[in-house]
Amino acid sequence: MPLAPRRARRARRARSSGAGLKVVAQAGVLTFVVGGSVAFAQASAEAPEPTSAATVAAVADLTERSREVASRSSARTQNLTVVLRGEKTAVSTAAATVGAALTELGVVLADDEAVSVDPTTPVAEGMEVVVDTVERTTVTEVEVVEHDSQEKPDDALVEGTKIVETSGRDGRSSVTYIVEKVGGAVVSRTPVTSVVESEVRDEVVRVGTLKLPDAGAKVLSPSQARALAKSMVADRGWDGEQFACLDKLWTKESNWRVTAANSSSGAYGIPQAYPGSKMGSVAADWRTNAKTQITWGLGYVSGRYGTPCAAWNHSQARGWY
């Protein structure tokens, strides 16, 4: 046979064989899309042609999706224990809530029964749910109502000074509840009576807003000196009653005048120190500085009488302090 015809026939057979391989490969890829990764392995065996990057990416994506679906299916199943009227049962459920899980089991509650867990609670791995008769008891508890604190601006106090005007006190109430339990777990607490034993009283704090000039640079007015003294009394821990006594004492002595001088006795200043030079133990500006005078006067009252009220009582009885 001539050489040319034989070569032509071999070429036709080769083309026919190649076309067959390509069809098989395409069919294999189609089968994978429908049937999964096993079919792709078969197609690879039948069609050794190199696969494209897009085909490889598609295979990987579908495989990952298959794993995710399997994982989600497994995660939806939870194991829990249901104690139904004293009998324990291990349950595996895909229900989303406790109520749905009990419905799957065909649990129907009697009128005097309840569930230890709110039926809307999501099912969780290992949880225990009790269905049983409700136990009702009555309990009485003393409850504390905490007091609040309120601040009131006071322009008679030096800026930044805080004085408690009204002390706070917590309130107390006696409350009676009907408590319902299922399997030892409290499922409801309903208040039925409440008796107030003591009323709550809010704390009231006065906060100073008065801005004073430099006590050393200017002689303070009586009202300014009084405001300064009120702040200094509070800093010592004395309350409003003690300041009221001091106010009456020094109003009587000097009417809160920094330069008040007693020509007959030589007493001087707001506290009427005798002689006035005693206040030099605090600072050399004792003649004009209200803070220096008040500092000395408070120290004198504390050291000799203990409190301003004790000093005022002595002044009322003796005419001096």
From TrEMBL:
<dbReference type="Pfam" id="PF03990">
    <property type="entry name" value="DUF348"/>
</dbReference>
<keyword id="KW-0732">Signal</keyword>
<dbReference type="InterPro" id="IPR007137">
    <property type="entry name" value="DUF348"/>
</dbReference>
<protein>
    <submittedName>
        <fullName>Uncharacterized protein DUF348</fullName>
    </submittedName>
</protein>
<dbReference type="Pfam" id="PF07501">
    <property type="entry name" value="G5"/>
</dbReference>
<dbReference type="InterPro" id="IPR011098">
    <property type="entry name" value="G5_dom"/>
</dbReference>
<dbReference type="InterPro" id="IPR023346">
    <property type="entry name" value="Lysozyme-like_dom_sf"/>
</dbReference>
<feature type="domain" description="G5">
    <location>
        <begin position="131"/>
        <end position="211"/>
    </location>
</feature>
